Amino acid sequence: MDDLLRSTLSRRRLLQTAAGAAALGAGAGLPWGPGAMAQGWADRPKSKVDKVNFVVWTYGDIYTKIAQKFEQDWGVKVDSTISSFNDHPTKLATMFAGGEAIDVSQSSPFSFPAFVKQGMVEPLTGLPGIDEYVKDFTGFTKEVAVIDGKPMGLPYFSAIWVWNYYEDMLAKLKVDKPFATYEEFIEHCVKAKKDGLCRYPVLWVAGVGLEQLPGTWYAIVANKGGRFFDKDGKHMLGPGSIAREVLKWWANTFEKGLDISDPESLKLQFTTSAKAFGAGNNLYRGPNHHYGLNVVNDPAQSPIAGKVKVHGFPGDGRTIGVTHVYFLNSANRDKEWAWKLLQYLGGRTKDGAYTQAVNLAKDAMLGSGYRSVMGSDVIKTGWKPWGDPDAILGMWEKATYIGEVCNSVYQPWHFPWTDQLNIEVQKCLTGQITADQCCDNLIKGIDDAKRKAR
Amino acid sequence: MTGQAAETAAGAHTAARRPFWRRELSVGWLAFFMNVPSMAVLFGVLAYPIYYAGYLSLHQVGLAQMRRGVFPFYGLQNYANLFEDPLFWLALKNTMLFTVFVVTVEVAAAVAIGLLLMQTSVWTSRVTRFLMLLPYAVPPIANGLIWSFIYNFKFGFLNRVLLTLGVVSEPINWSGHADTALIAVAIPYIWRTLPFAVLLVYAALQGINRDLYEAAAVDGASAWRRFWHITLPMLRPIIVVILILRTSFAFAVFEEILAITQGGPGDATWVAAWYGYKVSFAPPFNIGMGAASAYVLALIVGLFAIAYVKLFYRRMA
Question: N or C: fewer beta carbons within 10 Å in chain B?
């Protein structure tokens, strides 16, 4: 569970911290006192550089804005290299291997252990202001960004997995509320198909990726109280395991079973699935990042904007969450200036505000990796146009970090194993192999992945 | 000694007295020096990378080693790891299937289209000659994206047409179904690369002496016999060239895979180049093993080329 919401910190106590005050002030548009200027993030590095750079994956125009702000504040040019999410590790790897200078970069929690192992990540220990940042990290962020007690990155954003449903279609189905159990979910879907409301009632995020298809499986397994590995790293995929049973259930919703799953699911990533759901052809959208609502409820992008609601998991509502990070690249041209730039992306700007985190919440419905931001009104007001912030924050309280469900994410071999997981699970969902064969293959694949990562 | 011989001897004597840079080169040396620039370029852009890939394949190479420029010797371990990986064998199998299908279709289609283009009496052949080149101008990645829209399960053009015509009652998941995905990638690939083969065949057809056909016609040979006994044998050298080039390129198919299926669904379209890319450039960035896979691939392509030359050229001889 996330520290923020598990803790008993009150709004009053948050306000008492400088960090909280900074974020809240930024959200409310309050002027900043000279006190902020005395902090580490406001000091100019002694060294001189002509420029700094970052290598990240694309997200709207957030990087243009933050680069401009950095240039205005410090008079140092910022170069950016921006690729798609899936191409980012490759882009970063080739630049690093090619000997280019990279000051700041970005990682999903799944690639991060590999980047650390390859010596690409510079620890942040001892840098001015880092201790304050770590104190403000949420539980998710600590899980990703603190490795062996050393802070290795600052948070980019946090997200939890939620379900969505199309309100009008549910009403046509003559059902008062969305499913409360998995059995009810199947009932609704079968009825929607039988009544001719839609050909494929459920759209999953089951495209190949690190947290797309795997995330859907992880989320349902977590909700049912299962895991993929125990604390000693031993797999929990054997016969009768929750993970195996969930896969059987999931595969049965596809063509060879109940045939209620949209076949297009196997290609969809988070945003593309939100866009596809916006066509209004499905009743439910399977577990996915909560911020997809900012696409599917945006009138400019979706014909059913405003009609898509967020829905929690069945049972106790347990779900999973994740934090992505920015990190100081060991190939930086100047550590002090790289740290300064890193703070602009994942921490505070010169005025002491969490500018990027606040903008991401307001513009893109993203969660923050900082407790002070998550506890501020920025989240509630920022998310309001697309969804129900209170409902989502309620689900957030029940979120477990993805690494607790699948602790191989902390290992460099997780990446090659996920490659295999994507392949085997897609084969299972398309009826080429059974769920039992899939899990057996994944068990065998663990050693193979470890060998590849050596 | 004749006058001519005396002149030659005198010339040789004069040449021997000239400094070496003013002497006329022998044919052999001239050929050598004329080839030096192209050899240097070929060495730089082909031989050195091939050598370097071989070097990397024998060393432990990850990001950290690439950055430092220090590669611990790894012997044949990368190759051992490669051959132990079932995914590599599957990728090779898929590549073989893809290549056999693509090359067979391309050769047959190129000959057929080339013959049609030769029919100057059909005015559309002139239009076709121009239009044929268009797919070749489309960048491979753009081609992949265009076809991924065409194949789209719910909104794709192909399913719309088939549904409207009543050919199918439900849309088909062309690129998302394991049974059809490899073909779904092969079709756009053929569409893009076929014009090259057509151009070669068309050029070769124009070089065939018309008298041969006239003579055969006088002897009462049917169109099929004229094709079988004149056209096809005369096309054989160019078909060998097409086979070698198209096989080597088809073995390295990558862009259409990236744009349309990304290897999926499952492993249905994992091909050798995709495998090498994923191994090298996705965590844990095993560049040495990726180089080994590329080397094995190059070796197979080389064997195919030798086989083609031996089989077809021997027959021709």
Answer: C
Interface contact flag, B173 A98, Cβ < 8 Å? no
Minimum distance, in Å, between the CA of residue B82 and any CA atom of chain A? 10
Please answer yes or no on whether B62 and A118 come within 8 Å at the CB atom.
yes
Q: Domain A3-158+323-399 classified CATH 3.40.190.10?
A: yes
Interface membership of B213 toward A (CB under 8 Å): no
Q: What is the pLDDT along chain A (454 residues), one digit of tens a residue?
A: 444 333 333 333 333 433 443 443 443 333 333 344 446 788 899 899 999 999 999 887 889 999 999 999 999 999 999 998 878 988 998 899 889 999 999 999 988 988 998 899 999 999 999 999 999 999 999 999 999 999 999 999 999 999 999 999 999 999 999 999 999 999 999 999 999 999 999 999 999 988 999 999 999 999 999 999 999 999 999 999 999 999 999 999 999 999 999 999 999 999 999 999 999 999 999 999 999 999 999 999 999 999 999 999 999 999 999 999 999 999 999 999 999 999 999 999 999 999 999 999 999 999 999 999 999 999 999 999 999 999 999 999 999 999 999 999 988 899 889 999 999 999 999 999 999 999 999 999 999 888 877 7
CATH 1.10.645.10, applies to A160-320+403-453: no
Report the chain B residue with the minimal C-alpha distance to residue A209: B262
Which two tokens mark A235? 């797999």
Q: What span, in angstroms and rounded, lies between the C-alpha atoms of B206 and B129? A: 14
Pairing of strands A399-401, A319-328: parallel
> Which string of b and e fits B293-305 if b means at least 16 CB within 10 Å?
bbbbbbebbeebb
> Is A427–B284 a contact, with Cβ atoms under 8 angstroms apart?
no
The alpha-carbon gap from A207 to the nearest alpha carbon of chain B, in Å, equals 9
Domains of chain B and any CATH numbers: 74-316 (1.10.3720.10)
Size of interface A-B (CB pairs under 8 A): 105
Q: Is the pTM here over 0.90, yes or no?
A: no
What is the dihedral sign for C-alpha B25, B30, B33, B34?
A: positive
Chain B residues whose beta carbon lies within 8 Å of the beta carbon of residue A453: 283-284
The CA distance from A414 to A394, in Å, is: 30
Q: For residue B284, list chain A residues with Cβ-Cβ distance below 8 A.
A: 114, 117-118, 412-413, 415-416, 452-453
Cβ(A395)–Cβ(A316) below 8 Å: no
Query: What ipTM did this prediction achieve?
Result: 0.76
CATH 3.40.190.10 maps onto chain A at: 3-158+323-399, 160-320+403-453
What span, in angstroms and rounded, lies between the C-alpha atoms of A436 and A156?
37
Task: Name which of A147, A382, A338, A219 is nearest A137 in CA terms.
Answer: A147
For residue A128, give every residue at least 6 positions away whose Cβ sits within 8 Å of its Cβ, in sequence order, or none. A40, A41, A43, A339
- Min Cα distance B125 → chain A (Å) is 40
